[in-house]
């Protein structure tokens, strides 16, 4: 079952069981997927949103909510921070399991050898390889410095 179908099925289940908060988050995910569809159509391609695109969208949504929750915590708005964390839990149901630190390091080493990277100039190739295989499974903001350290 592709990601879009899983989200749609979860949306229907949330409607039937009247889970208001979950339904709200699922609608946001669905809207983001449709926005990406429209953007692709605007480029004139006949492409549709792939599972990798959906994973990237959800990854961005999680990151946005983590930043918002942190800001709400700092501002003393704990009820809003909790709402953001609840949305993160709903989104993460659809994301693959995050790689551990050891698994991430092994994936970086494998990507470096796969593309034959020798210097910092090859960082883009390595990151491209990692994004192709591990979208949604690792935080690329943290992986970038790791790759840089390995190549530098």
TrEMBL record:
<dbReference type="InterPro" id="IPR003789">
    <property type="entry name" value="Asn/Gln_tRNA_amidoTrase-B-like"/>
</dbReference>
<protein>
    <recommendedName>
        <fullName>GatB/YqeY domain-containing protein</fullName>
    </recommendedName>
</protein>
<dbReference type="InterPro" id="IPR042184">
    <property type="entry name" value="YqeY/Aim41_N"/>
</dbReference>
<dbReference type="InterPro" id="IPR019004">
    <property type="entry name" value="YqeY/Aim41"/>
</dbReference>
<dbReference type="Pfam" id="PF09424">
    <property type="entry name" value="YqeY"/>
</dbReference>
<dbReference type="InterPro" id="IPR023168">
    <property type="entry name" value="GatB_Yqey_C_2"/>
</dbReference>
<dbReference type="GO" id="GO:0016884">
    <property type="term" value="F:carbon-nitrogen ligase activity, with glutamine as amido-N-donor"/>
</dbReference>
């Amino acid at each position: 079952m592709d990601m879009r179908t899983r989200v749609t099925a979860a949306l229907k289940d949330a409607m039937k069981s009247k889970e208001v908060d979950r339904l709200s988050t699922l609608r946001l995910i669905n809207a983001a997927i449709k926005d990406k569809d429209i953007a692709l159509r605007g480029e004139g391609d006949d492409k549709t949103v792939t599972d990798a695109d959906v994973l990237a969208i959800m990854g961005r949504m999680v990151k946005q909510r983590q930043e918002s929750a942190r800001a709400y915590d700092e501002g003393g708005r704990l009820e809003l921070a909790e709402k953001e964390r609840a949305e993160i839990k709903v989104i993460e149901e659809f994301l693959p399991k995050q790689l551990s630190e050891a698994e991430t390091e092994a994936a970086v080493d494998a990507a470096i050898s796969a593309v034959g990277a020798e210097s910092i100039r090859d960082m883009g190739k390595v990151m491209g390889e990692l994004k192709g295989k591990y979208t949604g499974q690792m935080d690329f903001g943290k992986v970038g410095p790791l790759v840089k350290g390995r190549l530098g």
